[in-house]
Specification:
By secondary structure, the protein is of the alpha+beta class. Helix content is 57%, strand content 18%. Its main location: membrane.
Length: 201
């Protein structure tokens, strides 16, 4: 079997390249999105007899809760109603409620950076819209986050949103690589299954 694959290495490689090109080309048909990342510091205000380690763990739990809160329709509504919002809201107006929240959960995410009391906020959108959307999301979290976890917490922006230099979604390079691997696997399977029967190799 391995000898057969080795004898048809060129064929397998060519098919890998062709599928990689096809995968990358298909990726270009999807909407291009950039990402913007910001960071907020979560501070527990309850200092009565609590050691720093416990405070850090409490901040992590709060951050985990906030990351889930950011996915909710209530939080999305606060972002949309923010007085400082300058992003394009028309992208949402023609969608049903279900599609709006699904789109929101794909484009806005929070992730706790454990051991640091920092939360990373990542927003995906168009090149022109990603920065204003990320700024509004970050501001809304720092302004209204305490409403979801109680008043004994402060949320402070420590890093303003920074936009990626390149397209983040779709990941054309990754899709091309996966296409190359898939092409090689499929062509290898074809060689093993049919070459022996058709050509007597």
């Amino acid at each position: 079997m391995f000898e057969m694959l080795f004898r048809h290495t060129k064929l397998i490689f060519v098919w890998g390249v062709l599928v990689a090109i096809l995968s990358a080309t298909v990726s270009l048909l999807f909407p291009w999105q950039y990402s913007a990342e910001s960071q907020v510091l979560i501070i527990s205000r309850d200092r009565s007899g609590v050691d720093p380690y416990t405070q850090s763990k409490a901040a992590e739990r709060i951050g985990e809760n906030l990351a889930q809160v950011m996915r909710t329709d209530d939080f999305r509504g606060k972002v949309m109603e923010s007085a400082s919002a300058t992003f394009d809201k028309t992208r949402w107006t023609n969608l049903t409620d279900r599609k709006q929240i699904k789109k929101w959960q794909k484009e806005v995410a929070g992730q706790m950076m454990y051991g640091t009391s920092l939360m990373k906020i990542t927003v995906y959108s168009t090149k022109d819209d990603v920065l204003p959307l990320a700024s509004t999301v970050t501001e809304t979290l720092t302004t209204h986050g305490w409403e979801y976890v109680g008043g004994d917490v402060a949320i402070k922006t420590v890093n303003q949103p920074i936009v990626s230099q390149w397209i983040t979604k779709p990941n054309i390079l990754l899709n091309g690589l996966l296409g190359f691997l898939a092409g090689m696997v499929l062509s290898s399977a074809w060689v093993i299954k049919y070459k022996r029967h058709l050509f007597g190799f």
